[in-house]
């Protein structure tokens, strides 16, 4: 994926401009930055849901959206209500043929149904969800639901996996487990992972590249290049300290927390109301 001199405008406002970025194949990239700078909007541009206002954006050698069959997408977290009866495996299967729901697929014979079942089982195994995938998804924990949604995004064997804050509202052990899972999907399965995140700590260990969006532009580099006290303090406009543990791992301290009602800030998109108060 590449952006050259790219800019984006929403609601008559330029969020960022002059952005030059490249995400190479097989890399684990985090998109970070303060609330409201346009991280989710970047994901929408990469999916072709929103046109760039200037510059050039290419995804898998084509215009954004042209190869979405090879892009898995996990939108910002929605949790399933406890009363949702659909099983985890059925949610995963929707990633394969959910877009054909209600329309009979001619010639979908027994062999194809078996292949689909096998692919569901394979991807459920990959994300470590076999133990609960046959339960109603509403009865799975937040971390379990997230694994099943990642399986859904992976079922078509995408080359790129785009995730919008997949660790949001998970507890710390689940954040680490999902981060490790995504690291494995990237580095062992060869899927390029691009993930919007608020807290870099759970993923820091797995990252190849960091993109910070702030001050109307973007800054990219390796974690060692970008994650420094000086750079983060400047970008977040608040004191942020980067410490190195005795094991050599970086820890970011003082990074602004995501507000508790995070998903509410997105409820008003497109309606002109609702989310500005949370920024
Ligand atoms: N459809 C829209 N119409 C008008 N404004 C929009 C629209 N979509 C997003 N915005 C605004 O664009 C800005 C960036 O939104 P975006 O969701 O990309 O930010 P973000 O960096 O992902 O924020 P957060 O960290 O809070 O998730 C916000 O100020 C938001 O209010």
Distance between the termini: 28 Å
What name is given to the CATH topology? Rossmann fold
Overall SS class: alpha/beta
* Cross-sheet strand order for the largest sheet: 5-6-7-3-8-9
What compounds sit in this structure? Answer: adenosine-5'-triphosphate
Considering the protein shown, what is the CATH homologous superfamily? Answer: P-loop containing nucleotide triphosphate hydrolases
Walkthrough of the structure:
The protein has 279 residues and is α/β, with parallel strands linked by helices. It has one domain (2-79, 158-278): 3-Layer(aba) Sandwich (Rossmann fold), CATH 3.40.50. It is built from 9 helices and 11 strands. The strands form 3 sheets. The chain has a 6-stranded mixed sheet with strand order 5-6-7-3-8-9, sandwiched between helices. A 3-stranded antiparallel sheet has the order 2-1-4, with helices on one face. The chain has a two-stranded antiparallel sheet with strand order 10-11. The chain is globular. The model is unreliable at 258-279 (pLDDT under 50). Adenosine-5'-triphosphate binds at residues 10-11, 15, 33, 35-41, 265, 269-270, 275-276, 279.
Which labels suit this protein?
binds adenosine-5'-triphosphate, three-stranded antiparallel beta sheet, alpha/beta, ABC_transporter-like_CS, 279 residues, 9 helices
How would you sum up this structure in a few lines?
The protein is of the alpha/beta class and 279 residues long.
């Amino acid at each position: 994926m590449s952006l050259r001199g790219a800019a984006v405008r929403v609601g008559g406002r330029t969020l960022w401009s002059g952005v030059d970025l490249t995400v190479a194949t097989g890399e684990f990239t985090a998109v970070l930055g303060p609330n409201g700078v346009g991280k989710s909007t970047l994901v929408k541009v990469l999916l072709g849901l929103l046109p760039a206002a200037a510059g050039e954006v290419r995804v898998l050698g084509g215009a954004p959206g042209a190869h979405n069959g090879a892009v898995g997408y996990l939108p910002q977290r929605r949790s399933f209500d406890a009363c949702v009866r659909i099983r985890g495996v059925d949610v995963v299967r929707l990633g394969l043929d959910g877009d054909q729901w209600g329309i009979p697929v001619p010639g979908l014979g027994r062999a194809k149904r078996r292949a689909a079942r096998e692919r569901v089982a394979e991807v459920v195994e990959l994300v470590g969800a076999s133990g609960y995938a046959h339960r109603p998804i509403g009865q799975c924990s937040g971390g379990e639901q997230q694994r099943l949604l990642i399986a859904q995004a992976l079922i078509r064997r995408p080359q790129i996996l785009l995730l919008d804050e997949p660790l949001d509202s998970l507890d710390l052990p689940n954040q680490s487990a999902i981060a490790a899972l995504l690291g494995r999907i990237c580095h062992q399965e060869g899927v390029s992972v691009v993930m919007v995140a608020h807290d870099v700590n759970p993923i820091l260990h797995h990252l190849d590249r960091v993109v910070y969006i702030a001050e109307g532009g973007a800054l990219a580099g390796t974690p060692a290049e970008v994650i420094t006290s000086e750079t983060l303090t400047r970008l977040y406009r608040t004191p942020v300290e980067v410490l190195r543990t005795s094991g050599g791992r970086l820890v970011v301290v003082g990074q602004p927390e995501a507000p508790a009602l995070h998903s509410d800030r997105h409820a008003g998109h497109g309606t002109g109301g609702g989310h500005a108060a949370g920024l």
